[in-house]
Amino acid sequence: MQSDTMNLKILLPFKVFAEKKGVKRIIAETPEGSFGILPHRLDCTSLIAPGILVYETDADGETYTAVDEGILVKEGTNVTVSIRNAVGGTDLDKLKEAVENEFIALTEEEKNMRMSLAKIERGFVRQFMELKNS
Fold it and tell me: What is the tens place of the pLDDT at every residue in 103-124?
């Protein structure tokens, strides 16, 4: 028989951000919208979009964490969220602001950087083709 709680681990590239036992439910944001996870849900994997991750335990009640993009994996009673960055707190307005200012802005910065790299690559290929044809 499966447990009525889950174990949640939130991983960042350089450390374990949080490790919680006795989690009763989790709500996560995906590119398609938010979804909830209860202990008896089937195993799954999902992309995580920048947003607010909510989890609930008897000891702490509802806990809110601003998260950057990443991936969520539920396997049995273990849920692992691997993300690039996270900010914990209790003030939802400040967490929402962190998501908007830090995580979504970073995504826009990355898009601009990728466009610049694509231009450099095109220029390199063009010069290479000119050298090859001369």
Answer: 666 566 676 776 777 778 777 7
Contact 56, 25 (CB under 8 A): yes
Q: Contact 46/69 with Cβ under 8 angstroms?
A: no
- Total count of domains within the chain: 1
Neighbours of 82 (CB within 10 A): 14
Q: Which amino acid is at 50?
A: P
- The answer to whether position 1 is within a domain reads no
H helix or E strand, kind and range, residue 10:
strand 6-11
How many CA within 13 A on the CB side of residue 12? 13
Q: Which of 47, 87, 45 is nearest to 66 (CA)?
A: 87
Whole-angstrom distance, CA of residue 122 vs CA of residue 85: 32
Containing structural domain, residue 122:
6-133
pTM above 0.85, yes or no: no
Q: Read off φ and ψ for residue 96, nearest 5 degrees.
A: -60, -40
- Inside any domain, residue 63: yes
Q: Alpha helices of 40-104 — where are they, by DSSP H? A: 92-98
